[in-house]
Amino acid sequence: MSNDPTLGRRRFLTRAAAALGTAALAGCDQLSQESWFTQLLASAEGVTRAVQRAVIGQALAREYAEADITRNFRANGTTEPQSDEYQALADKDFADWLLEIGGLVERPAKLSLTELRALPARTQITRHDCVEGWSCIGKWAGARLGPILDKVGVKSNARYVVFFCADALDLSGDKYYESIDLAGAYHPQTILAYDMNNAPLTVPHGAPLRLRFERQLGYKMAKYVMRIELVESFAQLGRGKGGYWEDRGYEWYAGI
User: Fold this and answer.
1) Which fold has domain 61-248?
2) What are phi and psi of 242, to 5 degrees?
C-alpha cells in the first residue's frame, strides 16, 4: 500500500465524490448547499495542509506527455461572463485588457497580454481535478507568478495573493474570487495561463487569463482574472473566508 500523501488525499476525494451519487452531477452550487458535504471537506483541511507542507513542500505536481492530453477538456464553472465590461473586451479579442496588480506591493502595475507573454514563462501538462469528481489533462503555458510578484515588489506584511475575476456564478451578482498564500504563489508550477493546448485560452476555459495552481483542486484555478491584490488577511473580502466557494463552505486549502 502506498504511503504517498498525495495519493491518499486523492483516494479520500474519490470516495467522497462517489458518495455524492446523482447530487454531484448537479454541480458545485448544489453541493455547496449540503452541510454534510462542506463539513466533509472542512474536516480534512487541517490535516491535509500540515502533511503536504511538511512532507511534500514545494514538490511538483505530476506532469504528463502530449499523448495524455484530454481531447475534450471539460470547462468548469462559468463558461462565459455576462458583464458588459467583459463582453466588450472579448469583442476586441482582449486587445484592451489589462491585468491590474495592487494592494500590498511596492510598484502597482497594469500589464497587457503582450507584456505578460514577455515575462518568464512555463509550459506544463497537468491534471485538473474537480471537486465534482472528474479530471482532465491539459497543456498550459503562462507567466510564472513568482517573477511577477518580484517585479511589483511584495511588501513585508503581505500574506496572500487574491485573484478577482469577471464572472458571477449566481443571481447574487457576486464576482468570483480566489486566494493563495505566498508559498503557493512562488511554487514553480503556479502560473497565469494564457495558452491551453498550444492555442490562446478560449472563453469557456477562462480567457484571457486564468490561474493554474496545480497542487490544489479545480475551484482554486480562478478563470477570467482581471485584477490581483496582495493582502494581509481575508477580513475585508467577501464573507471573510478567502474565496467564492470558501465563503459558501468549501475549504480554503484544497490540496491534492
Assistant:
1) Sulfite Oxidase; Chain A, domain 2 (3.90.420)
2) 100, 5
